[in-house]
Hints:
This protein is mostly helical. It has helices at residues 14-81, 84-93, 132-142.
Amino acid sequence: MPRSRHQPAHSRTFRERLRLGRAGTHALTLVMVVLSLWMMASFVGQIMTGAQLEQRRATLVAENARIEATNRALLDQVEYAESPAYAEQIAREQLGLAAEGDTVLLPTFEDRPASKATPTPVALPAPTPQLNWRAWIQALTTGDTP
């Protein structure tokens, strides 16, 4: 007996209800699988991001240690540059000063007798003039310029 479209849901047959139940179960299963895959992909992405952040942190810690070492070295140099020992070193090396109580040794040089004869300059002979076309031929054939 054919049913009309407007029959209530409780009057459907067991077979129809079972078919509707299976479709709902399949849809629910599909939604759960998609949700599980999405959550798994999100979890893997978070693990990869965490590893990248940890690597970046290690790089920054190493760079920070290098900068701190450079700062310590520069502070040591500034401390030495402001010390009296540095001022004394500069006075001795660049200004040629000596401290009180230092023995200063001055080198002595032998007196050289002045040379009696001064050489007279000799003029070099002037080059002989050459015709222009011969100079060009010589330059082109030998690669020498006159």
